[in-house]
Task: inverse folding
């Protein structure tokens, strides 16, 4: 197993990075424009690089890089989003699965603490090996992923959002608590890593990307809705919590009633007390369920009707699960929000 040290870029690294990229045809060197030390330095400025990591092997040999920038080509990012690029691994080390995980985990702490929730990247859609590398650290192609005028395909990664989500939900005080750091090493099945198709799927009338991760003893399957960029379902060996429009109905007229289905299942071997609320913009939090205790394998589910507001547009509803783990010597408190959406449209005049 290759042992590497992950550290930020230092000024003395520029020459070795340029030589590494040129030797293996990464970047403009592949088209007859070899990089120089000055090119590396200028690129950091032009791209607005906020973080550049290198993986260093024996004798201070750089064998991998990863960078995060505010600009990619002609495109800038929106608030909370960062471009991931410069993801290169020396051919001799590409079978060392821990290197992408180490690079990404190191970057993740910085990105989340700096307020980033999503990473975007651009790749050539014909480059299956690079697609596999990016998928190993959680990038997805969705129906919103377009090939631009330079023939590059955009992919998105919500791991920073997930890291922050679980840090808040589990009330973790450090990044290495409860296996949070280690949870990103098994993000995607090797069977799908080299697929060039759409990675997202339809879920109750919406589009979601799926993340499977391990945190401590917890095996967690998360669905994130790509249109509202929020958690929409959690299924684990501790609990399942989800809510969605009945009949997969995502549109309605102002004042019309629409039904939602809520389900919670205790899949652990511990008793849990749960309360559920719902909240939408401009309204106070409303109680859906007040403090019931479910034993292992216990389930609560219910259909609830709500009137759509008069204002047209996308209505996002946050459903908050307040969970108490009841142990013999203590009670642990957690908060897991999942969100859903519907479109409110004026009735057709035809």
Result:
């Amino acid at each position: 197993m290759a042992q590497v040290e992950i550290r930020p870029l230092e000024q003395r690294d520029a020459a070795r990075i340029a030589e590494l990229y040129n030797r293996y045809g990464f970047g403009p060197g592949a088209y007859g424009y070899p990089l120089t030390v000055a090119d590396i330095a200028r690129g950091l400025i032009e791209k607005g690089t906020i973080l550049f990591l290198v993986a260093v092997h024996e004798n201070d040999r750089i064998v991998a890089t990863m960078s995060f920038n505010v600009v990619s080509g002609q495109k800038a990012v929106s608030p909370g989003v960062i471009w991931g690029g410069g993801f290169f691994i020396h051919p001799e080390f590409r079978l060392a699965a821990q290197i992408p995980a180490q690079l990404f985990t190191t970057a993740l702490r910085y990105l989340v603490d700096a307020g980033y929730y999503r990473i975007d990247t651009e790749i050539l859609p014909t480059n299956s090996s690079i697609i596999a590398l990016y998928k190993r650290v959680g990038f997805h192609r969705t129906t919103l992923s377009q090939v631009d005028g330079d023939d590059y395909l955009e992919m998105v990664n919500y791991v920073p959002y997930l890291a922050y989500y679980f840090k808040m939900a589990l009330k973790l005080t450090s990044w290495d608590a409860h296996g949070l750091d280690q949870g990103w090493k098994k993000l995607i099945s090797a069977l799908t890593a080299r697929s060039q198709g759409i990675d997202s799927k339809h879920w109750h009338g919406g589009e979601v990307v799926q993340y499977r991760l391990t945190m401590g003893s917890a095996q967690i399957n998360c669905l994130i809705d790509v249109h509202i960029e929020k958690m929409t379902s959690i299924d684990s060996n501790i609990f399942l919590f989800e809510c969605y429009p009945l009949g997969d109905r995502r549109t309605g007229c102002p004042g019309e009633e629409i039904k939602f289905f809520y389900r919670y299942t205790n899949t652990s071997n511990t008793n849990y007390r749960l309360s559920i609320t719902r909240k939408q913009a401009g309204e106070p939090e409303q109680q859906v369920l007040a403090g019931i205790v479910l034993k292992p394998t216990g389930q609560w589910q219910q259909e609830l009707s709500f009137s759509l507001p008069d204002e047209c547009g996308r209505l996002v509803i946050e459903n908050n699960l307040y969970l108490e783990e009841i142990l013999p010597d203590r009670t642990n408190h957690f908060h897991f929000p999942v969100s859903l959406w519907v479109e409110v449209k004026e009735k057709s005049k035809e």
Notes: The chain has a mean pLDDT of 88. The domain at 200-344 is CATH 2.60.40.10 (Immunoglobulin-like). DSSP finds five helices and 21 strands in the chain.
